[in-house]
Design the sequence.
């Protein structure tokens, strides 16, 4: 059950450690595994803690399409960074790009390059998937360019 808290109470669950350091969340978490996010309840409604902090600090209300992007890459568990100096507003496309740049998509660039080389060498997507312990569909998405698109520094 969500508690009825004052919005500013969110700061009671954060270690504020200066402008440059991540401000770690010590409150409730939602989600599963590495997709866990920090949450805080206000008047019966659940908010992402860092989104609430950003709103309170900057005095703006975000639309549902606007996302909070972290320059530090530590928005999820175990840090849940709530430092407003590490946040900016963006959309889905910019968030996906950030995830690739910060390698938060689950596969390091070196592995993506290796998968592409194995595909080029004639290995089946199923063989590669088994080798790396990932879904065959992930290998296919990499091979066809649907995901993990090449950046300037990617070479096959």
Sequence:
């Amino acid at each position: 059950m969500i508690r009825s808290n004052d919005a500013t109470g969110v700061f009671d669950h954060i270690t504020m450690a200066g402008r440059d350091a991540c401000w770690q969340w010590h409150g409730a978490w939602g989600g599963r595994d590495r997709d866990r996010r920090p949450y805080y309840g206000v008047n019966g409604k659940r908010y992402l803690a860092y989104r609430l902090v950003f709103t309170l600090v900057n005095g703006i209300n975000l639309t549902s399409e606007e996302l909070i992007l972290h320059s530090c890459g530590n928005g999820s568990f175990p840090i849940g960074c709530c430092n407003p100096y590490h946040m900016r507003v963006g959309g889905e496309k910019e968030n996906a790009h950030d995830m690739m740049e910060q390698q938060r998509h689950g596969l390091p660039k070196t592995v993506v390059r290796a998968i592409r080389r194995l595909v080029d060498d004639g290995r089946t997507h199923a063989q590669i998937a088994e080798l790396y312990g990932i879904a065959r569909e992930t290998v296919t998405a990499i091979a066809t360019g649907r995901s993990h698109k090449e950046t300037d520094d990617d070479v096959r």
Summary: DSSP finds five helices and seven strands in the chain. The radius of gyration is 19 Å. The chain has two domains: 7-101, 109-144. Residues 109-144 form one domain.
